[in-house]
What does this fold into?
Amino acid sequence: MDTEYRPAAPISEVMALSRSIRIRTLPARVVDRLRWEWREWHTPSRPSFQHEELDHALLDLIPWRIGERVLDVGCAHGSYLRQLANRQVAIHGLDVSTASLRRAIQYGRPLVAASGERLPFADESFETVLCHKTMYLFRTPEAALEEFARVLRPGGRIVFSTSATRTPYALIQQAAVRILNQRNWSSGNRLGPAAWVRTAKNCGFDQPHFYSCNLVAPIVFRMCDRWIVPNEWMRRVARTVRRVTGTPIDSARPHRLAQDFFVVMKKKGVCRSAHLANGNQQLPM
Ligand SMILES: C[S@@+](CC[C@H](N)C(=O)[O-])C[C@H]1O[C@@H](n2cnc3c(N)ncnc32)[C@H](O)[C@@H]1O
It folds into this structure.
């Protein structure tokens, strides 16, 4: 059989084609990105550079002990149930949304439908309470933090995420929230990391430690990530910014160039759990 002979396209045609692809795809990506932003306000998070940075801080930088009992408050579809169970953490999920929990069932972890402000667990049941992107949704954050303190063993820790409130990105976001009348968002988002730490201290936590994410240009990052600029490039930029500004990702205080934070705080009191006290890698059977 004859093979069809196809002359190579002249370079001018290739250039014209690539220009037209770029012209067609970039606006499409921007539109896609804006639609994603809109949906993000109503649904739990999906992967993007911002979330990858937070994931990195949560999964790789915060030390996890094999077998430690963790409660994931606001577990939604169970992304962290899966990822932390893979690290051999004994994780339980809790959420007010039964629809979300139905999707989390697939990861085979214990699940509870309840509010983070009223936990259906006995005192001192867990070594860690994780609360990622959920603190700002509580009507009474103090009630939630008091509940976290109650179900934690002495020496146990809370790991929660929060965002800066005075960066340009945060101010634009707050304006958009006001214009679009998104009440849920505005309430808790008014508290920045320092205010959360003060509230947590009143509820029995201490020794705050910060993991600062999304440095310097969160607006650019937020608007560009994934659909417009590949996450790998964003990571390179973030790494370079960290190197140039000499900014470590974890520190004793929130970094002023960062937009998002993980805060780790310890419950006050003497640690009675041999597991936490010894930093054991194995839970006693
Ligand atoms: C933005 S999602 C975060 C999901 C997940 N933690 C993550 O990082 O991907 C917030 C979740 O908090 C849940 N939620 C809202 N208010 C809550 C409350 N009072 N108690 C427990 N969960 C709550 C919502 O149903 C939702 O699944």
Residues 236 and 242 are 10 Å apart (CA to CA).
